[in-house]
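Propose amino acids for all 436 sites.
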């Protein structure tokens, strides 16, 4: 894990007022800076090597485990923040969510400690860079590289969902690329346990505004399909180097996620296959019911259209998929058939795509041992709207933040609920051009 990666683990809260001006809430960051641990200091059996990064919810260090003789990463919530029950509760919830997970595509949590120096998460240390850093360094990724990364990421998120966890903040800065090109999902600071209490039931919106789903903005129920949306936005960015929604104000950005039709990826990169456009635009549909129902279904579409190879990632372990995650072969087949083109010169292409997608789903059914699907029960999330841009970690919520968030929700609500004239989505346009 490098210093530039750790900045994504400790959080910063940004919230906007009615004019869209961004204001960072830095009071706690100043306090954490004052209590930074110097190299050579010991936290239990862990010897601090150096500081990797920090933010409003703590500081991340590279450390040496003196008993097991290995390098680890320590995420430390300083003692002054531990005195706040809300902060400590969120920190514990992050640990409980990540503790459920045991997968090569997820950063491993070794343990949690509560010491005089603060609450500590002991995490797997990995060297490399985030997907966000790679995109900034190189621009749009070659399609085979981007699709390989997301194939592995989807396998990791599938495991996360099987364990009953919704990440709620999937984005390129939380997809880590190790030096050996292994993919690791990290940062469970705002994760939700589907079978537990949501510690983020506040007036603050949970997520990162550039990637956040419409239901998170509107305060609707969030489930596994929320992660489908944020993964779709991230895939859009990885292959085009651009985000589908970039606006000057926070309110305009929220409006875009809730109301506006996303541009076709080919607008930014002509060589993107229509089949890949279809996958991306289906993942980022406004209504969760119109998206892929699961990461397995998302991946089945990529495999079925020949966009990724039919293989499991290195080190992946086979496990029975959760009932909510099962691809519905019939549903996808019917969906493609509805949009199939009729002109003779396009019909064969549409039929070929249809057959390929079905083949991909059949492959997953055979490989994973799938059985008839059901939707997982959804639980209500009370906290909504406001502007937050959150990088990894539980989010601070002051009284002022709550007031601003409620104001933003009030301003956005008429836009989100007002009836609009029916119009075709970009996804439907792509489906027609595909012949699906």
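Proposal:
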């Amino acid at each position: 894990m490098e210093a530039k990666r750790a900045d994504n683990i400790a959080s910063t809260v940004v919230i906007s007022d009615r004019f869209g001006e961004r204001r960072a809430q830095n009071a706690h960051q100043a306090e954490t800076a004052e209590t930074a641990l110097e190299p050579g200091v010991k936290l239990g059996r862990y010897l601090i090597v150096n500081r990797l990064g920090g933010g409003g919810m703590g500081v991340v260090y590279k450390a040496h485990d003196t008993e097991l003789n290995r390098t680890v990463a320590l995420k430390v919530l300083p003692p002054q923040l531990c005195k706040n029950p809300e902060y400590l509760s969120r920190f514990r919830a992050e640990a409980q969510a990540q503790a459920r997970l045991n997968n090569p595509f997820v950063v491993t949590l070794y343990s949690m400690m509560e010491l005089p120096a603060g609450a500590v998460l002991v995490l797997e240390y990995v060297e490399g860079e985030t997907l966000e850093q790679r995109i900034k360094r190189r621009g749009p990724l070659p399609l085979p590289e981007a699709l390989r990364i997301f194939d592995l990421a989807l396998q990791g998120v599938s495991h996360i969902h099987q364990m009953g966890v919704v990440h709620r903040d999937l984005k390129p800065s939380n997809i880590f690329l190790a030096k050996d090109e292994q993919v690791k999902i990290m940062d469970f600071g705002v994760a939700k346990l589907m079978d537990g209490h949501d510690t983020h039931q506040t007036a603050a919106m949970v997520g990162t505004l550039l990637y956040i789903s419409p239901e998170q903005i509107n305060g609707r129920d969030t489930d596994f399909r929320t992660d489908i949306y944020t993964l779709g936005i991230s895939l859009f960015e990885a292959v085009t180097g651009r985000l589908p929604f970039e606006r000057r104000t926070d309110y305009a950005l929220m409006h875009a996620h809730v109301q506006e039709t996303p541009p076709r990826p080919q607008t930014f990169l002509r060589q993107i296959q229509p089949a890949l456009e279809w996958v991306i635009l289906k993942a980022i549909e406004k209504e969760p019911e119109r998206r892929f129902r699961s990461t397995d279904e998302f991946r089945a579409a990529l495999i079925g259209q020949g966009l990724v190879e039919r293989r499991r990632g290195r080190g992946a372990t086979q496990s029975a998929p959760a009932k909510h995650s099962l691809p519905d072969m019939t549903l996808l087949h019917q969906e493609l058939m509805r949009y199939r083109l009729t002109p003779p010169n396009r019909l064969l292409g549409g039929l070929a795509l249809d057959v390929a997608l079905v083949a991909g789903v059949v492959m997953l059914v055979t490989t994973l041992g799938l059985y008839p699907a059901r939707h997982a029960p959804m639980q209500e999330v009370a906290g909504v709207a406001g502007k937050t841009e959150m990088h990894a970690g539980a989010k601070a919520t002051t009284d002022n933040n709550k007031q601003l968030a409620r104001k933003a929700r009030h301003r956005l609500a008429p836009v989100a609920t007002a009836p609009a004239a029916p119009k075709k989505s970009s996804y439907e346009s792509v489906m027609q051009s595909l012949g699906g």
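The two ends are 43 Å apart (CA to CA). The first helix runs from residue 3 to 6.
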